[in-house]
Write a structure and sequence with these properties.
Helices cover about 35% and strands about 20% of the residues. It is an alpha/beta fold and about 260 residues long. The strands form two sheets. A seven-stranded mixed β-sheet has the order 4-3-2-5-6-9-7. Helix 1 crosses helix 2 (about 45-50) and helix 7 packs across helix 10 (about 245-255). It starts with 13 loop residues before the first strand and ends with a helix.
């Protein structure tokens, strides 16, 4: 088998630039040995660089059977799990030890990948990789901008996120119709939020589901139309204007009103 056919159904755009692959591998910035899980290695362009990194103890997870067969033939040193990352029990990986996640992520499921990482944040201190540029901008966005949204708040609550560099379409086969970017997420010091974390997610999602409205309008369903908290000054803001800390504070206020 000489190559793998890119499959549109899997969102496959195979990286063919060794220089870009090297930069993605370097984004881990490891100074000591670490377990690393590569998501969607495809034809192994990034995998080769990870295998050559003395600090990386690598495992890969790949859904595409054709890619799994190709990697077995061309990169026999790579341990490849034939599975869907989104349904992989990450608690069983690396014998319960912490690990980093890296990959040239399929664009059609990149947000789901990050939310899966978030569910296992206590085991995943580092997550790097390539996504659609628009997604990268949302992940790293600061409050106040149009790109700041649900995924920005929920991930930034637990990770410090950096937009590292932009990648043009011509380094892929086939070239995507959009630009790409590489991000790095490092686990911050927050072990748990100072609020009801499930309610926090509900408040964030409810607010941004009507992001053009002031908070007063979007959160009325959670509080009831006559609730005095709707007169709080924060309710005159739009959701993209609130920081993670302000969402935590608001969640606590809402929790008191719902008792």
């Amino acid at each position: 088998m000489r190559y793998v056919t890119p499959k549109k159904s899997l969102g496959q755009h195979f990286l063919r630039s060794e220089e870009t692959a090297a930069r993605i591998a370097e984004s881990l910035a490891l100074g000591a040995p670490m377990n690393v899980l590569e998501v969607g290695p495809g034809m192994g362009v990034l995998t080769r660089h990870l295998l050559h990194n003395e600090f990386v103890r690598l495992e890969c997870v790949e859904l595409d059977a054709q890619s799994v067969a190709y990697l077995a033939e061309h990169l026999p040193d790579a341990n490849v799990i034939h599975a869907d990352f989104l349904h992989l029990d990450l608690s069983m990986m690396f014998n319960g030890e912490p690990f980093a996640v890296i990959g040239n992520y399929p664009y059609n499921i990149s947000s789901q990948i990050f939310f899966h990482v978030l569910e296992h944040r206590d085991r995943i201190p580092l997550c790097c990789g390539m996504v659609q540029k628009e997604v990268a901008e949302r992940l790293a966005a600061n409050p106040g901008g149009k790109t700041y949204g649900i995924i920005s708040v929920l991930l930034q609550a637990y990770y410090d996120i950096e937009y590292l560099f932009t990648v043009p379409p011509d380094v892929f086969d086939p070239p995507p119709k959009v630009q790409s970017a590489v991000i790095r997420m490092r686990r911050n010091s927050v072990q748990r939020l100072d609020c009801d974390e499930q309610l926090f997610k509900t408040v964030v999602k409810t607010a941004f589901n009507q992001r053009r409205k002031m908070m007063r309008g979007s959160l009325k369903a959670l509080l009831g139309s006559g609730n005095k908290l709707l007169n709080d000054p924060v309710m005159t803001l739009r959701p993209e204007q609130l920081s993670v800390e302000q969402f935590v504070e608001l969640t606590n206020k809402i929790a008191l009103e719902r008792q």
